[in-house]
Design brief:
CATH topology of the largest domain: D-Maltodextrin-Binding Protein, domain 2
Largest sheet: 6 strands, mixed
Distance between the termini: 98 Å
Number of domains: 2
Order of helices and strands: HHEHEHEHEEEHEEEHEHEEHHE
CATH class of the largest domain: Alpha Beta
Protein name: Lipoprotein
Pfam family, one: Lipoprotein_9
Membrane topology: Lipid-anchor
Keywords: Lipoprotein, Membrane, Palmitate, Signal
Subcellular location: Membrane
Strand content: 15-25%
Structural class: alpha/beta
C-alpha cells in the first residue's frame, strides 16, 4: 500500500475515533436519570387536595352525633363538615333558606311538606338517614291498659307530628280518626271516635318531656326523649319499623348535585354508620337505609 493509501486510512480512523468519543461523552447519549424522573412525576401528581367546608345545621341528638361520627371520613375526602347545633329546631329551615347553612338534618318529609308551601321553601331532599319511632311516655302509668277515662294526653302541636301522634293512638285502638285524611295533617278536631274521652293537650314538642308530671302521658319524639335523658325503652308503646317518618338531609334546590353533598350522603348511608346507630341508640333510632 502506498503512502497516499496509508494517509487516507489514518484519516478515516481519526474520524471514526472522534465520532465514537463524541457518542460516549455527548448529552444525547447519556442514560436517563430514572430516579429524578420518578420524583418529578410524583411531584406533579401529588397536588394537595383542596378542602371544601360544608356547614350543616342539626338537632343535637341523634343528628349532630351521627354527623360528627362521619366527620373524619369526610375530612379524608376533602370535605370539612361544620356541624352547627340549633336548640330551636324551628330556626333550621329559615337558616337554610337565608344561606346561613348549606344543609340541615332534623326533619322528616311530612313535616317539610307541611311547612314549605306556607314558608316558601324551595328545598330538595337528598337522602334518608334514620327513623326515630315516636312513642308514648308516662311518669305515672306502667302500661297502656292503665290509661283511664278522661286522661290528659300531651301531643305535639306542629301539623305533621300531631297527625303522627294521633295516628299512633289510633293504631293502639284508643281513638278513631276521620276517614280520608291523606295529607299527614290532623288535630283533635279530626277525631271521629274517642271511647275513653281522652283530653288532648297540644304543646310545643320540646316542652312535652318537662310536662310529663302534669299529664297521664305524652307522645314524644325520640330525639327529645334522648335529650331529656329519658330511657327510650320506657315507652309504653311506639311506632313500628314501617314508619314513613325518616329523618332526611335537606338542601336548597339545585345544591343536591354538589360534590360535597353527594359525599355527605354516601358517608351517612355507609355500613359503619348503620352499625353506629344500632349500637349507640338501640330501639330509639332505626337506620332508614
Amino acid at each position: 500500500m502506498g503512502k497516499k493509501g496509508l494517509f487516507s486510512l489514518a484519516s478515516i480512523l481519526v474520524v471514526i475515533g472522534a465520532i465514537v468519543s463524541g457518542c460516549a461523552s455527548g448529552g444525547t447519549a447519556q442514560a436517563p436519570d430514572t430516579k429524578s424522573a420518578a420524583q418529578g412525576t410524583a411531584a406533579s401528581t401529588a397536588k394537595p387536595t383542596k378542602e371544601t367546608t360544608l356547614k350543616i345545621g342539626a338537632a343535637a341528638v341523634p343528628h349532630a352525633e351521627i354527623l360528627n361520627f362521619v366527620k373524619p371520613k369526610l375530612k379524608e375526602q376533602g370535605v370539612n363538615l361544620e356541624v352547627v347545633v340549633y336548640d330551636d329546631e324551628g330556626q333550621l329551615n329559615p337558616a337554610l333558606k337565608d344561606k346561613q347553612i348549606d344543609a340541615n338534618y332534623f326533619q322528616h318529609v311530612p313535616y317539610l311538606d307541611s311547612v314549605k308551601g306556607e314558608k316558601g321553601y324551595d328545598f330538595a331532599v337528598t337522602t334518608k338517614v334514620h327513623v326515630e319511632p315516636i312513642g308514648f311516655y308516662s311518669s305515672k302509668l306502667k302500661s297502656k291498659d292503665e290509661i283511664k277515662e278522661g286522661a290528659r294526653i300531651g301531643i305535639p302541636n306542629n301539623p305533621s307530628n300531631e297527625y303522627r301522634a294521633l295516628a299512633l293512638l289510633q293504631q293502639q285502638g284508643l281513638i278513631k280518626l276521620k276517614d280520608g285524611l291523606t295529607t299527614y295533617e290532623a288535630t283533635p278536631k279530626d277525631i271521629a271516635g274517642n271511647p275513653k274521652k281522652l283530653k288532648f293537650v297540644e304543646a310545643d314538642s320540646a316542652t312535652l318531656p318537662r310536662s310529663l308530671p302534669d299529664l297521664e302521658g305524652a307522645i314524644i319524639n325520640t330525639n327529645l326523649v334522648l335529650e331529656a335523658k329519658i330511657d327510650p325503652k320506657s315507652a309504653l308503646f311506639r311506632e313500628d319499623s314501617k314508619s314513613p317518618y325518616a329523618n332526611v338531609i335537606v338542601v336548597r334546590k339545585g345544591d343536591e348535585t354538589r360534590d360535597e353533598v353527594k359525599k355527605l350522603d354516601a358517608a351517612l348511608t355507609a355500613p359503619e354508620v348503620k352499625k353506629f346507630i344500632e349500637d349507640k341508640y338501640g330501639v330509639a333510632v332505626v337506620p332508614a337505609f
